[in-house]
Design goal:
Layout lengths: L1 H12 L2 E4 L11 E6 L5 E10 L9 E6 L11 E8 L10
Parallel strand pairs: 3-5
Antiparallel strand pairs: 1-2, 2-3, 4-5
Length: 95
């Protein structure tokens, strides 16, 4: 599903992404990507936090840790998308 979402963003808006594995995140299950625009210019950091855990509230939401601005040089946004999917067991299929 993640790959399909990025594929759709590319087809609709010309966005592309690259895994950002070297960025420290607030939880081991969160994942991050650098997002590039049509001209291959870096435009954002996107964080996906997809699985339920006891420390998270229920539901799904999107927020930003840092907003984009250009007042004192270009500052790129850090966007987070949070969901609460049930994680499949190690040998169980995900439905």
């Amino acid at each position: 599903m993640i790959e399909a979402a990025f594929y759709t963003a590319n087809r609709l808006f010309g966005l592309s992404s690259s895994n950002a594995k070297d960025i420290p995140l607030y939880h081991a299950e969160a994942r991050s990507w650098i997002v590039f625009g049509r001209t291959a210019r870096r435009i954002a950091l996107f964080i996906g936090d997809y699985f339920a855990r006891s420390s998270k509230r229920s539901g799904a939401w999107m927020s930003s840790f840092r907003d984009q601005h250009r007042l004192d040089g270009e500052v790129l946004p850090i966007i987070v998308n949070v969901l609460n999917f049930a994680k499949a067991g190690e040998n169980d299929p995900a439905f």
